[in-house]
Design brief:
By secondary structure, the protein is of the alpha/beta class. It is built from seven helices and 13 strands. The strands form four sheets. It has a six-stranded mixed β-sheet with strand order 4-1-7-13-9-12, with helices on both faces. The protein is globular. About 45% of the residues are buried.
Length: about 270
């Protein structure tokens, strides 16, 4: 398994963590405000994928080239952030790329972005993530801090990953959620948006149930935010999914699908509170 900053009208302590990013107006609705907490998978010493450098690409000049999962999940997260802020929604991110925040225009067969060093968005110093459970728990700690700094907001936790499934015939998006949240409105909206875009989970072309709430993923099992999901956006071993991951247009497509689900969920909340 393979982790944006700019918050909207955030409080002073959190603003200090997110220094350098301007405030944005919050959309005025009668529903509770929503804060979207994005958790782009991996980072630091853990590049994601089956190899320490990420997903294997091809030989390049006698050297093996790799796609770093953390760089691409961060890119998708930044795209979701841009869409959310543009539409007046509040966002935060669990980690920051210390060597650049800009959305990448890396295209296949260009090589991967420079090694991305991540730091957790916590109030007391930066902690470099690493490949063990302590790092995963630090993500949860960052999310809890963000949530506490936004009292009264409805938090949505979205952890972003890409998969490296056993077969290239497995394609599409898997949605992992916590036990009991399979039928949550946001989970259902996310499932529907990927289905409408023909990117739902499939094996050998046959549709499979994309939602799994019977897992022990620590960021879901030990979390507290409702709703919370971990999304495997695609299978790197599948040619179509790999092309989407490595393409700016493909990553923008993933971001727009996720944001559409966020909008659907926000609209459902607004309908309950008008």
């Amino acid at each position: 398994m393979k982790i944006l900053i700019a918050a909207v009208l955030i409080s002073a302590p959190l603003a200090a963590v997110f220094a350098g990013h301007p405030p944005y107006p919050t959309k005025q609705t009668s529903s509770p405000p929503i804060i979207i907490i994005l958790d782009p998978g991996h980072g630091g010493t853990d590049r994601g994928g089956p190899h320490e450098n990420g997903f294997p690409l091809a030989e390049a000049g006698g050297k093996r080239a790799y796609a770093a999962e953390d760089a691409y999940t961060y890119d998708v997260a930044k795209r979701i952030e841009r869409l959310a802020v543009k539409n007046g929604l509040k966002t935060a991110i669990t980690v920051t790329a210390k060597n650049g925040d800009a959305i990448s225009e890396i295209r296949e067969p260009d090589l991967i972005p420079a090694h991305t060093r991540m730091s957790y968005n916590l109030p007391r110093g930066n902690i470099t993530p690493f490949r063990n459970k302590k790092g995963l728990r630090l993500r949860l700690r960052a999310a809890r801090y963000i949530q506490k700094e936004n009292p009264g907001a409805t938090a949505v936790w979205i952890s972003l990953h890409f998969d490296y499934a056993s077969s290239p015939k497995i394609s599409g998006t898997k949605i992992y959620t916590a036990k009991g949240l399979r039928d949550h409105p946001f989970v259902k909206a996310l499932e529907e948006e990927f289905r409408k875009n023909s990117l739902s989970y499939a094996d050998k072309g046959a549709a499979k149930n994309p939602v799994n709430d019977r897992n022990g993923l620590i960021v879901l099992k030990e979390g507290w935010i409702v709703p919370r999901v971990l999304v495997e956006l695609g299978n790197f071993r599948n040619p179509r999914d790999r092309k989407l991951m490595l393409s700016p247009r493909g990553r923008e497509r993933y971001a727009r699908i996720v944001f559409s689900a966020i909008e659907d969920y926000e609209n459902s909340l607004r309908g309950k509170h008008i």
